[in-house]
Amino acid sequence: TGEADGFDAAPTMQPDDAYALDKIRLESDLRAALDRKELEVRLQPIEEIVSGRIAGYEALVRWQHPERGAVSPAEFIRLAEETSLIVPIGDYVLARVCDMLVELRERGRKPLPFIAANLSGRQIDDPGLVQRILDLLHARDLPPDKLKLEVTESLVMDHARIGDLIAHCHSVGMPVALDDFGTGYSNLGPLLTLNFDQIKLDASFIKALDRPRGVAMVGVIVGMARALDCDLVAEGVETREQREILHRLGCRYAQGWLVGKPLSLGDVLEH
Ligand code: C2E
Ligand code: CA
Ligand code: CA
Ligand code: CA
After folding, report:
1. Cα-based distances in Å from 235 to 29, 90, 182, 260
2. 260 lines ligand 1 (CB under 6 A)
3. pTM of the shown model
4. CB–CB of 34/92 below 8 Å?
5. Which pLDDT tens digit goes with each residue over 25-48?
6. How far apart are CA 104 and CA 260, in angstroms?
7. CA of 17 to the centre of ligand 2 (A)
8. Which residue intervals define the domain EAL in the entry (predicted)?
């Protein structure tokens, strides 16, 4: 799995007018892509470090554009959020995730791994979201604790409904993770007031593990997560050295190229 999947290039900056034109084109393309099912949901494995077991996966959406090639979700999710397209895309991803859980179950994966889906702001603001997810799960006879929801720190700051969403999820047994922890102009406020089940430590902290300062900070975050009874997932783990240090510090889960790239369901089932 050592090769790049083509989604890692930085988005190029463009003059505003060119951007607007490009945006309109991209938007109509995206609308068509959704109809033609050009969007693919990939699964990136999440390893329990002590056992080496794959405990679950994160669902990451991909768009294979007919002319532009692979378009990064970092690009088109933002665009979709500016339009109403994020609503059907979000629903599509959640339904795919539930179907994938069924396939993993049918292949006899025991215990059944979890799959985590990323939520957009629109989804957080939608009071019907949890019930719709429950309907998807019940229709397939899936336990709600196998579907995790990920919300980023910046979304949490902007969406007052997040507390209600977490409470609703917990009342039905669905876990919620705080994504990209430690990035942006963040503070510890969300962790003070909100009861997350999992914290995903941003890759920038894992990169910093080559310095004593980084090791010290990650050590403190491991202790904080434990004190809050939150599972900690290290994101962007690329080297054995990083995993070794995380193991020593007591971080429970690792996600990143070292463990595996985002895979098609077919590739996941082959492992
Ligand atoms: P994220 O939630 O932080 O997802 C992790 C990103 O890090 C993914 O980028 C993944 O491919 C990349 N990654 C994983 N391991 C490594 C590693 O070892 N090294 C490096 N350098 N990168 C690694 P991706 O797939 O391009 O997704 C970008 C962002 O797009 C995601 O960031 C997430 O915020 C958003 N996104 C993806 N799928 C969805 C979706 O279905 N719905 C919503 N709302 N957002 C999504
Ligand atoms: Ca995520
Ligand atoms: Ca993340
Ligand atoms: Ca990120």
Report:
1. 31, 22, 11, 12
2. no
3. 0.92
4. yes
5. 888 888 999 888 889 999 999 999
6. 17
7. 31
8. 23-271
